[in-house]
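ok here's UNC-50 family protein:
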Amino acid sequence: MEDSYQHTKYHKQTKNQWARDDPAFIVILILFLVFATSAYCAAFGESAPHAALTIISVVFVHFLFAGLVLATLCWFLTNSYLREEPNSHVVEQRVEWLYAFDVHCNSFFPAFVILYVLQYFLSPLLIAHGFLPALLSNLLFMVAISYYHYLNFLGYDVLPFLDRTTFFLYPIGLVIILSPLSKCILYSTKFSPLKNHLTYFLLSCSDTHRV
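and the structure:
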């Protein structure tokens, strides 16, 4: 994902836009989500109607709706507060909304690998009770969120007309600062973000499979 931003300037020179003109990556991400969610549904014995509802919810809420909100927020912040003041000899440039959504898609992929793929194989451990499963699940969630924001930063840092893009790294610091405290609180309350995420795929399973 980091290497993909190395071609951004070249794409601007050849296509006169920062965003991709090919939606193939978005389609691939959606197919990955459908496949991963189907694997959860099959593994935990969900009924066909509930499996279909779960897949639709993951694609349209977890990925598309969240992406629309985050991309719009970043698009607004960059164009309103992070652009350098152009001089009279430079054409004013703005972040395209489609580019902001591209950045979200690039940043989402590693989070998908951690929260959908890796979590799937670790789910027998993560749904167990105890300190180690809680620690591991929260650590994975922290890494996924942090890496998402790091790639988000890279996506905007490559644009030459933006300034103070380190703003997009601030959430990582917040996650790291709050992580030790949150682990204590979450363990004491028997709540884990990844366990809660796993529960989403277990709603129609028997009590023996529930988190």
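+1. The longest helix spans residues 48-82.
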